[in-house]
Design brief:
279 residues; alpha/beta; six-stranded mixed beta sheet; four-stranded antiparallel beta sheet
Length: 279
């Protein structure tokens, strides 16, 4: 567990944040009959739901029920696993993500990914953000510097690191490293952010800092977050999807508005899980 940094405490927002004020009832991603298998093993079967633009959608459920495989399918990272196959449909606005002619590099610019553990490159703070910009063809140095500063401001890091941008990123605290990784995704100005338990490896103060940041990103970005913390899902999400294992295969059990799913779930299994009876 990482030790909190004084600047993490200073950045912690003291008043409750409003949930995604710009959340719109308009599908940004439409997933239909999505299934994922690794070799002969099916890990996720026939998942269908619509992710709303500018909203925060939480994916909940016990370990091993396919949440991360679902998340990684949305920008085709799961396809990098040998023997993995994905069937069904994932439509980003009007573009079929699973089409053979999809520009995967451009797709991952539109849909960024933040992982469970902070994974900054073993480079300087500046290079962590400059490298993806250069890889995506941003040639103008002044434009790259502008984007780097804006991304660091967006995650509340600029005032903390602006005087040491050429210092090693691995010298940052755990919470700062995770915010740097979020900035690394934001620097490409994506539309959607995928987050796989981004707070689970952090101490409580740093976790709170990142959680507040996620809430502020809602509205500007469509956010999809895997979390095992039900209280966190309830605090930050506009919509919640509950996954479960049935016959050893991950299934979507229930999806809906967060408040309704937690307070009046339609499925008995959902109620059992959120009340701690199952799972």
């Amino acid at each position: 567990m990482n030790t909190s940094h004084p600047t993490d405490l200073a950045y912690r927002v003291s008043e409750p944040q409003l949930q995604s004020a710009c959340c719109q009832p308009q599908a940004h991603l439409t997933i239909s009959q999505l299934s994922v298998r690794y070799g002969q093993k099916v890990v996720l079967s026939n998942v269908s739901l619509a992710i709303q633009r500018g909203c925060i959608t939480a994916l909940i459920g016990p370990s091993g029920c396919g949440k991360t495989s679902f998340l990684s399918s949305l920008n085709r990272l799961v396809g990098m696993v040998p023997g993995c196959s994905v069937t069904g449909s994932i439509v980003l606005d009007t573009d079929e993500i699973l089409a053979a002619n999809t520009d995967v590099l451009m797709l991952r610019r539109r849909i960024g990914m933040i992982f469970q553990r902070p994974n900054p490159f073993p480079l300087s703070i500046r290079r962590n953000l400059d490298m993806p910009l250069q890889e995506h063809g941003f040639k103008d140095k002044a434009d790259r510097e502008r984007r780097i500063e804006q991304a660091l401001r967006d995650v509340g890091l600029w005032d903390e690191v602006s005087d040491r941008l050429d210092a090693p990123a691995l010298g940052l605290s755990g919470g700062q490293q995770q915010r740097l990784c979020i900035a690394r995704a934001l620097v490409l100005e994506p539309e959607i952010l995928l987050m796989d338990e981004p707070c689970s490896a952090l101490d409580p103060i740093s976790s709170g800092v990142v959680e507040d940041l996620i809430m502020r990103l809602g509205g500007r970005y469509t956010v999809i977050i895997v979390t095992h913390n039900l209280a966190q899902a309830r605090r930050i999400a506009n919509y919640t999807a509950f996954f479960w294992m049935q016959n050893h295969v991950g299934q979507l059990i229930e999806f809906g508005a967060c408040q309704q799913l937690f307070e009046a779930p339609a499925q008995a299994l959902t109620a059992a899980y959120i009340n701690g009876i199952r799972g």
